[in-house]
Amino acid sequence: MELDLLYALTNRSGKQTWYDVMLETRRHTAMAEELGYDRIWLGEHHFDVDGSDASPNPIMLATDLAARTERLRFGMAAVSLTLWHPLRVAEDLALLDHFSDGRLDVAFGRGILPIEVMNLNPAASRWNGSDNSQEIFEENLAIVRKIWTEDQFSWVGKRHIFPEPGTKFIHSPGAPMPDGWVGEDGNLVAFGMTPKPFQQPTPPQFAVTESMGGFVGAAQKNLRPITWYPTGGVLRNLFENYRAEVGETTGVTPPLGEGCGVLRLCCVAETDEEARRIAEPGIVEFFEFLCKVRGIGVWLDADEDPNDPRYREMDPWEFLMERDHLMIGSPDSVIERMSWMTESHGIQHWLLQMGFPGVGAADVDRSLELFAREVMPEVRKLDSSAVKVGCPRIRRERTTVPEYLNPWNLPYPRYGMTPGVATEDFVFAGGMALDLETVRRKPEADSIAAETKIALEEIQGLLEAAGCTLRDVVKTTCYLSDDSYRKEFWEAYTEVFAPGPFPARTTFVVGIAGDCRVEIDVIARRPKH
Question: pTM of the prediction?
Protein backbone atom coordinates (compact mmCIF):
# COMPACT_ATOMS: atom_id res chain seq x y z
CA MET A 1 0.00 0.00 0.00
CA GLU A 2 1.48 3.31 -1.12
CA LEU A 3 0.40 6.38 0.84
CA ASP A 4 1.45 9.61 -0.83
CA LEU A 5 0.67 13.29 -0.47
CA LEU A 6 -0.27 15.62 -3.29
CA TYR A 7 1.04 18.97 -2.14
CA ALA A 8 -0.25 22.26 -3.51
CA LEU A 9 1.32 25.62 -2.72
CA THR A 10 -1.89 27.34 -1.69
CA ASN A 11 -2.38 30.96 -0.66
CA ARG A 12 -6.09 31.62 -1.09
CA SER A 13 -6.11 34.72 1.12
CA GLY A 14 -3.20 36.22 -0.82
CA LYS A 15 -1.74 37.47 2.45
CA GLN A 16 1.38 35.31 2.39
CA THR A 17 4.44 35.94 0.30
CA TRP A 18 5.53 33.11 -1.98
CA TYR A 19 8.63 32.78 0.18
CA ASP A 20 6.46 32.10 3.24
CA VAL A 21 4.47 29.51 1.29
CA MET A 22 7.76 27.87 0.30
CA LEU A 23 8.85 27.73 3.94
CA GLU A 24 5.57 25.98 4.84
CA THR A 25 6.18 23.55 1.99
CA ARG A 26 9.64 22.74 3.33
CA ARG A 27 8.23 22.19 6.82
CA HIS A 28 5.40 19.94 5.63
CA THR A 29 7.87 17.98 3.53
CA ALA A 30 10.05 17.37 6.56
CA MET A 31 6.96 16.26 8.49
CA ALA A 32 5.95 13.88 5.69
CA GLU A 33 9.36 12.21 5.80
CA GLU A 34 9.35 11.94 9.59
CA LEU A 35 5.77 10.61 9.73
CA GLY A 36 6.31 7.84 7.19
CA TYR A 37 4.54 8.98 4.02
CA ASP A 38 5.95 7.44 0.84
CA ARG A 39 5.99 10.37 -1.61
CA ILE A 40 5.11 13.98 -2.13
CA TRP A 41 3.68 14.80 -5.54
CA LEU A 42 4.09 18.34 -6.86
CA GLY A 43 1.99 19.84 -9.63
CA GLU A 44 2.92 22.22 -12.43
CA HIS A 45 0.75 25.33 -12.61
CA HIS A 46 1.56 28.70 -14.14
CA PHE A 47 0.32 32.25 -13.53
CA ASP A 48 -1.52 31.28 -10.33
CA VAL A 49 -3.21 34.35 -8.90
CA ASP A 50 -6.12 32.68 -7.10
CA GLY A 51 -3.93 30.89 -4.56
CA SER A 52 -4.68 27.33 -5.71
CA ASP A 53 -1.16 26.10 -6.50
CA ALA A 54 1.70 28.49 -7.19
CA SER A 55 4.10 25.82 -8.48
CA PRO A 56 5.41 26.83 -11.93
CA ASN A 57 8.40 24.50 -11.86
CA PRO A 58 7.98 21.33 -9.78
CA ILE A 59 11.39 20.07 -10.94
CA MET A 60 13.23 22.99 -9.34
CA LEU A 61 11.03 22.83 -6.25
CA ALA A 62 11.64 19.10 -5.80
CA THR A 63 15.38 19.70 -6.16
CA ASP A 64 15.24 22.05 -3.18
CA LEU A 65 13.13 19.64 -1.13
CA ALA A 66 15.18 16.57 -2.03
CA ALA A 67 18.28 18.26 -0.61
CA ARG A 68 16.46 18.53 2.76
CA THR A 69 15.29 14.90 2.96
CA GLU A 70 16.80 11.42 2.82
CA ARG A 71 14.02 8.86 2.29
CA LEU A 72 10.93 10.56 0.88
CA ARG A 73 10.30 10.11 -2.85
CA PHE A 74 9.25 13.02 -5.05
CA GLY A 75 6.66 12.73 -7.74
CA MET A 76 5.95 15.14 -10.56
CA ALA A 77 2.14 15.17 -10.98
CA ALA A 78 2.27 16.19 -13.56
CA VAL A 79 4.92 17.61 -15.81
CA SER A 80 2.86 19.37 -18.49
CA LEU A 81 4.79 17.75 -21.29
CA THR A 82 3.18 19.75 -24.09
CA LEU A 83 4.60 22.96 -22.59
CA TRP A 84 8.25 21.86 -22.50
CA HIS A 85 10.94 21.28 -25.08
CA PRO A 86 11.29 17.50 -24.79
CA LEU A 87 15.11 17.45 -24.63
CA ARG A 88 15.26 20.14 -21.95
CA VAL A 89 12.72 18.43 -19.72
CA ALA A 90 14.49 15.08 -20.20
CA GLU A 91 17.74 16.67 -19.00
CA ASP A 92 16.14 18.49 -16.08
CA LEU A 93 14.39 15.37 -14.81
CA ALA A 94 17.57 13.33 -15.13
CA LEU A 95 19.42 15.91 -13.03
CA LEU A 96 16.68 15.81 -10.39
CA ASP A 97 16.94 12.03 -10.32
CA HIS A 98 20.63 12.41 -9.45
CA PHE A 99 20.09 15.24 -6.97
CA SER A 100 17.53 13.07 -5.11
CA ASP A 101 19.68 9.89 -5.18
CA GLY A 102 17.09 8.16 -7.34
CA ARG A 103 13.99 9.23 -5.42
CA LEU A 104 12.12 10.55 -8.46
CA ASP A 105 8.81 9.44 -9.96
CA VAL A 106 7.42 11.22 -13.00
CA ALA A 107 3.83 11.64 -14.13
CA PHE A 108 3.23 13.30 -17.47
CA GLY A 109 0.17 15.29 -18.53
CA ARG A 110 -1.00 17.58 -21.32
CA GLY A 111 -1.80 20.71 -19.28
CA ILE A 112 -5.37 21.54 -18.38
CA LEU A 113 -5.81 25.27 -17.84
CA PRO A 114 -6.18 27.54 -20.89
CA ILE A 115 -4.17 30.36 -19.29
CA GLU A 116 -1.20 28.00 -19.10
CA VAL A 117 -1.42 26.14 -22.39
CA MET A 118 -2.44 29.05 -24.60
CA ASN A 119 0.33 31.32 -23.30
CA LEU A 120 3.16 28.78 -23.21
CA ASN A 121 2.36 26.68 -26.28
CA PRO A 122 -0.87 27.65 -28.07
CA ALA A 123 -0.23 24.89 -30.61
CA ALA A 124 -1.13 22.45 -27.82
CA SER A 125 -4.67 23.80 -27.44
CA ARG A 126 -7.15 21.24 -26.13
CA TRP A 127 -10.17 23.36 -26.97
CA ASN A 128 -10.09 23.91 -30.73
CA GLY A 129 -11.15 20.44 -31.83
CA SER A 130 -7.73 19.46 -33.16
CA ASP A 131 -5.58 16.50 -32.18
CA ASN A 132 -2.52 18.69 -31.66
CA SER A 133 -2.43 18.36 -27.88
CA GLN A 134 -2.44 14.57 -27.96
CA GLU A 135 0.02 14.45 -30.86
CA ILE A 136 2.47 16.79 -29.12
CA PHE A 137 2.20 14.79 -25.92
CA GLU A 138 2.79 11.48 -27.68
CA GLU A 139 5.81 12.76 -29.60
CA ASN A 140 7.40 14.51 -26.62
CA LEU A 141 6.92 11.45 -24.42
CA ALA A 142 8.54 9.19 -27.00
CA ILE A 143 11.49 11.58 -27.31
CA VAL A 144 12.03 11.78 -23.54
CA ARG A 145 11.94 8.03 -23.13
CA LYS A 146 14.19 7.44 -26.12
CA ILE A 147 16.96 9.86 -25.17
CA TRP A 148 16.89 8.55 -21.60
CA THR A 149 17.75 5.06 -22.81
CA GLU A 150 19.82 5.42 -26.02
CA ASP A 151 23.46 6.43 -26.47
CA GLN A 152 22.88 7.10 -30.17
CA PHE A 153 19.67 9.08 -30.14
CA SER A 154 17.98 10.39 -33.26
CA TRP A 155 14.42 11.33 -34.06
CA VAL A 156 12.32 12.25 -37.07
CA GLY A 157 8.76 13.21 -36.20
CA LYS A 158 5.95 15.55 -37.16
CA ARG A 159 7.27 18.43 -35.04
CA HIS A 160 10.86 17.57 -34.21
CA ILE A 161 13.95 16.34 -36.04
CA PHE A 162 17.04 15.45 -34.00
CA PRO A 163 19.83 16.07 -34.75
CA GLU A 164 19.00 19.15 -36.76
CA PRO A 165 20.19 18.39 -40.33
CA GLY A 166 23.57 19.91 -41.15
CA THR A 167 24.69 20.20 -37.52
CA LYS A 168 28.46 19.88 -37.12
CA PHE A 169 29.91 18.13 -34.08
CA ILE A 170 32.84 20.09 -32.67
CA HIS A 171 34.87 17.38 -31.01
CA SER A 172 37.37 17.98 -28.23
CA PRO A 173 40.72 16.50 -29.38
CA GLY A 174 41.49 15.05 -25.99
CA ALA A 175 38.26 13.01 -25.74
CA PRO A 176 37.31 9.81 -27.56
CA MET A 177 34.95 10.24 -30.51
CA PRO A 178 31.42 9.11 -29.49
CA ASP A 179 30.49 5.97 -31.37
CA GLY A 180 27.86 6.47 -34.07
CA TRP A 181 27.38 10.23 -33.65
CA VAL A 182 29.03 11.56 -36.82
CA GLY A 183 28.35 10.61 -40.43
CA GLU A 184 30.83 10.41 -43.31
CA ASP A 185 30.14 14.04 -44.23
CA GLY A 186 31.12 15.18 -40.74
CA ASN A 187 27.56 16.05 -39.79
CA LEU A 188 25.89 14.90 -36.61
CA VAL A 189 23.59 11.88 -37.17
CA ALA A 190 22.93 11.00 -33.50
CA PHE A 191 23.82 12.17 -30.02
CA GLY A 192 23.14 11.35 -26.38
CA MET A 193 22.54 13.16 -23.10
CA THR A 194 24.65 13.52 -20.00
CA PRO A 195 23.69 12.55 -17.42
CA LYS A 196 21.17 9.86 -18.08
CA PRO A 197 18.76 9.23 -15.17
CA PHE A 198 20.18 7.85 -11.94
CA GLN A 199 17.50 5.13 -11.92
CA GLN A 200 18.06 2.69 -14.73
CA PRO A 201 16.71 2.48 -17.27
CA THR A 202 14.39 5.35 -16.23
CA PRO A 203 12.56 6.73 -13.20
CA PRO A 204 9.12 5.13 -12.66
CA GLN A 205 6.68 6.78 -15.04
CA PHE A 206 3.02 7.66 -14.56
CA ALA A 207 0.22 9.28 -16.54
CA VAL A 208 -2.35 11.67 -15.09
CA THR A 209 -5.65 10.87 -16.78
CA GLU A 210 -9.40 10.51 -16.27
CA SER A 211 -10.44 9.01 -19.59
CA MET A 212 -10.74 5.48 -20.90
CA GLY A 213 -8.33 6.33 -23.70
CA GLY A 214 -5.85 7.63 -21.15
CA PHE A 215 -6.01 4.45 -19.06
CA VAL A 216 -5.73 2.14 -22.05
CA GLY A 217 -2.92 4.25 -23.50
CA ALA A 218 -1.09 4.16 -20.16
CA ALA A 219 -1.25 0.37 -20.17
CA GLN A 220 0.10 0.25 -23.72
CA LYS A 221 2.98 2.61 -22.88
CA ASN A 222 3.86 0.92 -19.58
CA LEU A 223 2.77 3.96 -17.57
CA ARG A 224 0.99 3.82 -14.23
CA PRO A 225 -2.22 5.89 -14.33
CA ILE A 226 -3.15 8.41 -11.64
CA THR A 227 -6.71 9.72 -11.60
CA TRP A 228 -8.75 12.15 -9.52
CA TYR A 229 -12.45 12.58 -10.27
CA PRO A 230 -13.73 9.15 -11.42
CA THR A 231 -15.65 7.25 -8.77
CA GLY A 232 -17.89 4.22 -8.33
CA GLY A 233 -18.65 2.31 -11.49
CA VAL A 234 -16.75 4.81 -13.63
CA LEU A 235 -13.55 4.20 -11.68
CA ARG A 236 -14.13 0.46 -11.63
CA ASN A 237 -14.54 0.40 -15.41
CA LEU A 238 -11.31 2.36 -15.91
CA PHE A 239 -9.43 -0.05 -13.64
CA GLU A 240 -10.86 -3.13 -15.34
CA ASN A 241 -9.95 -1.88 -18.83
CA TYR A 242 -6.45 -0.91 -17.70
CA ARG A 243 -6.04 -4.36 -16.18
CA ALA A 244 -7.26 -6.07 -19.35
CA GLU A 245 -4.97 -3.97 -21.57
CA VAL A 246 -1.95 -4.70 -19.37
CA GLY A 247 -2.77 -8.39 -19.69
CA GLU A 248 -3.11 -8.06 -23.45
CA THR A 249 0.15 -6.10 -23.75
CA THR A 250 2.35 -8.07 -21.37
CA GLY A 251 0.69 -11.47 -21.23
CA VAL A 252 0.27 -11.16 -17.45
CA THR A 253 -3.03 -9.85 -16.07
CA PRO A 254 -2.49 -8.02 -12.75
CA PRO A 255 -4.99 -7.86 -9.88
CA LEU A 256 -7.67 -5.21 -10.14
CA GLY A 257 -6.30 -1.80 -9.16
CA GLU A 258 -2.64 -2.76 -9.29
CA GLY A 259 -0.56 0.07 -10.71
CA CYS A 260 -3.39 2.60 -10.50
CA GLY A 261 -3.25 5.66 -8.25
CA VAL A 262 -6.28 7.52 -6.91
CA LEU A 263 -6.20 11.11 -5.69
CA ARG A 264 -8.66 12.27 -3.03
CA LEU A 265 -9.02 15.35 -0.85
CA CYS A 266 -8.25 14.44 2.75
CA CYS A 267 -8.57 16.04 6.16
CA VAL A 268 -8.37 14.14 9.44
CA ALA A 269 -9.53 15.65 12.73
CA GLU A 270 -10.53 14.31 16.12
CA THR A 271 -14.21 14.10 15.11
CA ASP A 272 -16.24 14.09 11.91
CA GLU A 273 -17.79 17.38 12.97
CA GLU A 274 -14.42 19.07 13.46
CA ALA A 275 -13.12 17.80 10.11
CA ARG A 276 -16.22 19.13 8.39
CA ARG A 277 -15.86 22.52 10.06
CA ILE A 278 -12.27 22.79 8.84
CA ALA A 279 -12.72 21.48 5.31
CA GLU A 280 -16.26 22.26 4.19
CA PRO A 281 -15.80 25.90 3.07
CA GLY A 282 -12.91 24.96 0.80
CA ILE A 283 -14.68 21.85 -0.45
CA VAL A 284 -17.83 23.76 -1.41
CA GLU A 285 -15.79 26.43 -3.18
CA PHE A 286 -13.84 23.81 -5.11
CA PHE A 287 -16.99 21.90 -6.03
CA GLU A 288 -18.66 25.01 -7.41
CA PHE A 289 -15.53 25.98 -9.34
CA LEU A 290 -15.21 22.55 -10.97
CA CYS A 291 -18.90 22.51 -11.86
CA LYS A 292 -18.39 25.78 -13.75
CA VAL A 293 -15.23 24.62 -15.48
CA ARG A 294 -16.04 21.00 -16.24
CA GLY A 295 -19.70 20.41 -15.38
CA ILE A 296 -21.22 18.41 -12.56
CA GLY A 297 -20.85 15.19 -14.54
CA VAL A 298 -17.18 14.96 -13.58
CA TRP A 299 -18.27 14.01 -10.04
CA LEU A 300 -21.01 11.51 -10.98
CA ASP A 301 -21.13 7.75 -11.17
CA ALA A 302 -21.86 5.85 -14.37
CA ASP A 303 -25.59 5.49 -13.71
CA GLU A 304 -26.18 9.17 -12.87
CA ASP A 305 -27.48 11.74 -15.34
CA PRO A 306 -25.70 15.12 -15.13
CA ASN A 307 -28.91 16.77 -16.37
CA ASP A 308 -30.89 15.51 -13.39
CA PRO A 309 -31.71 18.70 -11.43
CA ARG A 310 -31.72 16.96 -8.06
CA TYR A 311 -27.92 16.71 -8.10
CA ARG A 312 -27.58 20.49 -8.35
CA GLU A 313 -29.99 20.88 -5.45
CA MET A 314 -27.97 18.62 -3.15
CA ASP A 315 -25.68 19.97 -0.49
CA PRO A 316 -22.17 19.84 -2.06
CA TRP A 317 -20.59 18.28 1.01
CA GLU A 318 -23.12 15.45 1.19
CA PHE A 319 -23.01 15.05 -2.59
CA LEU A 320 -19.24 14.48 -2.60
CA MET A 321 -19.22 12.37 0.54
CA GLU A 322 -21.87 10.05 -0.86
CA ARG A 323 -19.75 9.44 -3.97
CA ASP A 324 -16.48 8.79 -2.10
CA HIS A 325 -14.67 11.90 -3.30
CA LEU A 326 -13.67 12.94 0.22
CA MET A 327 -11.46 11.04 2.66
CA ILE A 328 -12.42 13.46 5.42
CA GLY A 329 -13.49 12.88 8.99
CA SER A 330 -12.31 11.28 12.20
CA PRO A 331 -9.57 8.62 11.96
CA ASP A 332 -12.18 5.85 12.16
CA SER A 333 -14.28 7.40 9.40
CA VAL A 334 -11.30 7.83 7.08
CA ILE A 335 -10.15 4.27 7.75
CA GLU A 336 -13.64 3.02 6.87
CA ARG A 337 -13.77 5.00 3.62
CA MET A 338 -10.31 3.97 2.47
CA SER A 339 -10.95 0.35 3.42
CA TRP A 340 -14.16 0.36 1.43
CA MET A 341 -12.44 1.63 -1.72
CA THR A 342 -9.69 -0.95 -1.34
CA GLU A 343 -12.39 -3.60 -1.12
CA SER A 344 -14.43 -2.28 -4.05
CA HIS A 345 -11.67 -1.16 -6.42
CA GLY A 346 -8.43 -2.76 -5.29
CA ILE A 347 -6.73 0.58 -4.62
CA GLN A 348 -3.14 0.10 -3.50
CA HIS A 349 -1.88 3.60 -4.25
CA TRP A 350 -3.36 6.74 -2.68
CA LEU A 351 -2.50 10.38 -3.30
CA LEU A 352 -4.03 12.43 -0.51
CA GLN A 353 -4.30 16.21 -0.79
CA MET A 354 -4.54 17.65 2.71
CA GLY A 355 -3.45 21.21 1.97
CA PHE A 356 -6.18 22.36 -0.38
CA PRO A 357 -7.34 26.00 -0.57
CA GLY A 358 -9.17 27.08 2.55
CA VAL A 359 -7.34 24.75 4.96
CA GLY A 360 -4.75 26.53 7.10
CA ALA A 361 -1.22 25.29 7.74
CA ALA A 362 -1.95 24.41 11.38
CA ASP A 363 -4.90 22.23 10.33
CA VAL A 364 -2.70 20.54 7.73
CA ASP A 365 -0.17 19.83 10.50
CA ARG A 366 -2.79 18.12 12.66
CA SER A 367 -4.20 16.20 9.73
CA LEU A 368 -0.78 14.90 8.70
CA GLU A 369 -0.06 13.78 12.25
CA LEU A 370 -3.45 12.19 12.94
CA PHE A 371 -3.42 10.30 9.66
CA ALA A 372 0.10 9.01 10.25
CA ARG A 373 -0.58 7.97 13.85
CA GLU A 374 -4.05 6.43 13.57
CA VAL A 375 -5.03 5.88 9.93
CA MET A 376 -1.78 4.91 8.24
CA PRO A 377 -1.10 1.73 10.31
CA GLU A 378 -4.56 0.36 9.55
CA VAL A 379 -4.55 1.22 5.86
CA ARG A 380 -1.06 -0.26 5.45
CA LYS A 381 -2.56 -3.61 6.43
CA LEU A 382 -4.92 -3.62 3.47
CA ASP A 383 -3.92 -5.42 0.30
CA SER A 384 -5.43 -6.63 -2.95
CA SER A 385 -6.77 -9.78 -1.30
CA ALA A 386 -9.49 -7.56 0.18
CA VAL A 387 -10.98 -6.87 -3.27
CA LYS A 388 -14.53 -8.12 -3.75
CA VAL A 389 -14.65 -8.66 -7.51
CA GLY A 390 -18.04 -7.92 -9.02
CA CYS A 391 -19.40 -6.44 -5.80
CA PRO A 392 -21.29 -3.24 -6.67
CA ARG A 393 -21.86 -0.67 -3.99
CA ILE A 394 -25.23 0.54 -2.86
CA ARG A 395 -24.72 4.26 -2.70
CA ARG A 396 -25.53 5.70 0.66
CA GLU A 397 -24.58 8.61 2.81
CA ARG A 398 -22.38 7.48 5.64
CA THR A 399 -22.55 9.72 8.64
CA THR A 400 -22.64 9.57 12.40
CA VAL A 401 -25.86 11.63 12.31
CA PRO A 402 -28.98 9.38 12.12
CA GLU A 403 -31.06 9.57 8.95
CA TYR A 404 -34.81 9.75 9.51
CA LEU A 405 -36.57 7.70 6.85
CA ASN A 406 -39.96 8.68 5.49
CA PRO A 407 -39.64 8.17 1.70
CA TRP A 408 -43.37 8.64 1.11
CA ASN A 409 -43.52 11.90 3.11
CA LEU A 410 -46.49 10.63 5.11
CA PRO A 411 -47.68 12.48 8.23
CA TYR A 412 -45.93 10.27 10.80
CA PRO A 413 -44.54 13.30 12.72
CA ARG A 414 -48.13 14.26 13.51
CA TYR A 415 -48.17 11.26 15.84
CA GLY A 416 -44.71 11.85 17.27
CA MET A 417 -42.96 9.13 15.32
CA THR A 418 -40.77 8.30 12.32
CA PRO A 419 -41.22 4.99 10.47
CA GLY A 420 -37.49 4.34 10.12
CA VAL A 421 -34.08 5.54 11.29
CA ALA A 422 -30.74 4.67 9.70
CA THR A 423 -27.40 4.90 11.47
CA GLU A 424 -23.90 4.18 10.22
CA ASP A 425 -24.32 0.41 10.59
CA PHE A 426 -27.99 -0.37 11.20
CA VAL A 427 -31.51 0.49 10.08
CA PHE A 428 -34.42 0.43 12.52
CA ALA A 429 -37.83 0.31 10.83
CA GLY A 430 -41.42 -0.55 11.56
CA GLY A 431 -44.51 -1.30 9.52
CA MET A 432 -48.25 -1.80 9.88
CA ALA A 433 -51.32 -1.53 7.65
CA LEU A 434 -52.51 1.73 9.20
CA ASP A 435 -54.12 4.54 7.22
CA LEU A 436 -52.66 7.65 8.87
CA GLU A 437 -55.53 9.90 7.76
CA THR A 438 -58.32 7.77 9.21
CA VAL A 439 -56.16 6.06 11.86
CA ARG A 440 -57.87 2.82 10.85
CA ARG A 441 -56.67 -0.37 9.24
CA LYS A 442 -56.33 -0.11 5.46
CA PRO A 443 -59.25 -1.74 3.61
CA GLU A 444 -56.96 -4.01 1.61
CA ALA A 445 -55.71 -5.57 4.86
CA ASP A 446 -58.76 -7.80 4.94
CA SER A 447 -56.96 -10.87 6.26
CA ILE A 448 -54.13 -11.47 8.69
CA ALA A 449 -51.95 -12.69 5.80
CA ALA A 450 -52.66 -9.55 3.74
CA GLU A 451 -52.06 -7.29 6.73
CA THR A 452 -48.75 -9.03 7.46
CA LYS A 453 -47.56 -8.61 3.87
CA ILE A 454 -48.57 -4.92 3.78
CA ALA A 455 -46.56 -4.28 6.97
CA LEU A 456 -43.54 -6.03 5.50
CA GLU A 457 -43.89 -4.15 2.19
CA GLU A 458 -43.80 -0.88 4.12
CA ILE A 459 -40.66 -2.04 5.93
CA GLN A 460 -39.10 -3.08 2.65
CA GLY A 461 -39.60 0.43 1.24
CA LEU A 462 -37.91 1.96 4.27
CA LEU A 463 -34.98 -0.43 3.98
CA GLU A 464 -34.53 0.35 0.29
CA ALA A 465 -34.39 4.06 1.11
CA ALA A 466 -31.34 3.24 3.26
CA GLY A 467 -29.71 0.91 0.71
CA CYS A 468 -30.89 -2.35 2.29
CA THR A 469 -33.30 -5.20 1.58
CA LEU A 470 -35.24 -7.63 3.72
CA ARG A 471 -32.25 -9.98 3.38
CA ASP A 472 -30.31 -7.59 5.60
CA VAL A 473 -32.79 -7.93 8.48
CA VAL A 474 -31.23 -9.64 11.49
CA LYS A 475 -34.01 -9.23 14.09
CA THR A 476 -37.79 -8.77 14.01
CA THR A 477 -40.18 -8.00 16.83
CA CYS A 478 -43.77 -8.87 15.91
CA TYR A 479 -46.99 -7.78 17.62
CA LEU A 480 -50.41 -9.43 17.26
CA SER A 481 -53.60 -8.15 18.81
CA ASP A 482 -54.86 -11.70 19.39
CA ASP A 483 -53.02 -14.97 19.85
CA SER A 484 -55.42 -16.74 17.47
CA TYR A 485 -53.79 -14.88 14.53
CA ARG A 486 -50.43 -16.51 15.14
CA LYS A 487 -50.67 -19.36 12.58
CA GLU A 488 -51.89 -17.23 9.65
CA PHE A 489 -49.35 -14.54 10.51
CA TRP A 490 -46.52 -17.07 10.70
CA GLU A 491 -47.36 -18.53 7.28
CA ALA A 492 -47.43 -15.12 5.56
CA TYR A 493 -44.29 -13.94 7.37
CA THR A 494 -42.41 -17.11 6.39
CA GLU A 495 -43.50 -16.76 2.76
CA VAL A 496 -42.07 -13.25 2.53
CA PHE A 497 -38.72 -14.14 4.11
CA ALA A 498 -38.36 -17.50 2.34
CA PRO A 499 -36.14 -19.26 1.54
CA GLY A 500 -34.16 -17.81 4.44
CA PRO A 501 -31.97 -17.58 6.36
CA PHE A 502 -34.60 -16.11 8.63
CA PRO A 503 -33.95 -13.29 11.11
CA ALA A 504 -34.28 -13.80 14.85
CA ARG A 505 -37.93 -13.20 15.83
CA THR A 506 -39.90 -12.39 18.96
CA THR A 507 -43.73 -12.25 18.95
CA PHE A 508 -45.94 -10.51 21.51
CA VAL A 509 -49.71 -10.26 21.91
CA VAL A 510 -50.55 -6.61 22.68
CA GLY A 511 -52.95 -3.82 21.86
CA ILE A 512 -52.26 -2.11 18.50
CA ALA A 513 -53.23 1.33 17.18
CA GLY A 514 -56.56 1.72 15.39
CA ASP A 515 -58.11 -1.59 14.58
CA CYS A 516 -54.83 -3.05 13.23
CA ARG A 517 -54.02 -6.59 14.20
CA VAL A 518 -50.35 -6.85 13.08
CA GLU A 519 -47.34 -4.62 13.66
CA ILE A 520 -43.68 -5.48 12.93
CA ASP A 521 -40.38 -3.83 13.92
CA VAL A 522 -37.06 -4.81 12.34
CA ILE A 523 -33.35 -4.23 12.82
CA ALA A 524 -31.29 -4.56 9.62
CA ARG A 525 -27.56 -4.54 9.12
CA ARG A 526 -26.65 -1.69 6.77
CA PRO A 527 -24.26 -3.11 4.17
CA LYS A 528 -21.25 -1.19 2.91
CA HIS A 529 -21.41 -2.76 -0.54
Answer: 0.73
